[in-house]
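Q: Could you fold this chain for me?
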Amino acid sequence: MNISQIPFTRVNRSVNEAEGYYSRLSGIYDWLAGSEKKFISQGIELLKPREGDKILEIGFGTGYAQLQIGQAVGNGFSAGLDISIGMGRIAQQQVMKAGLSDRVGLVRSNTLPIPFKAGSFDGLLSSFTLELFDTPLIPEVLKECRRVLKPDGRLVVVSLSKDDPLPWMGRIYERLHNRYPRLIDCRPIPVIQLIQQSHFTVEQIQKTSMWGLPVIVLLASCSYD
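A: Sure. Below is the predicted structure, expressed as structure tokens.
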């Protein structure tokens, strides 16, 4: 599978380093990343989880999206994957507090393949997670997303975006990522090209920004050639 022709930076960090980093941040993550929540909600609106749906979220963090999806699917099910033990503990507490344990299941996973059977899900959400994977891994992650979705499944990605030339704030941020890759691990990526190269059909695109950084909220459908 071809990597996007738009150059974007690497993530030079081991899986264990990533897990430790996010577990250490888990107690204050909602405060640190509170500005992400409105974009996550925007992604859920595009995904449109419905009664009876089975939805997978990759990178559930502290469980913000899981609570919304769990409410929406009713007698369906919402599954979540995350690398961080600390995030998982907080998210599980939130799910139990909301009384959604019967329809939300959280799994810690730090390796591919995604631990679900092919065609298991009606929809999949990834918010501010795809850009955390190292460049060679992104096509593999998207290939797995496609595998676990049903033939008519829908994918929503919320991500820092390098689909257009970066504004000055984006260029500064990218330089900081290059200099401090373990501290600033999230970098803009060419989402549209990566999705298309993974044989998804892009259905809707919403472009916005967060603190001057381009953000894309994208809906795609499975496309089997």
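A (continued): DSSP finds eight helices and seven strands in the chain.
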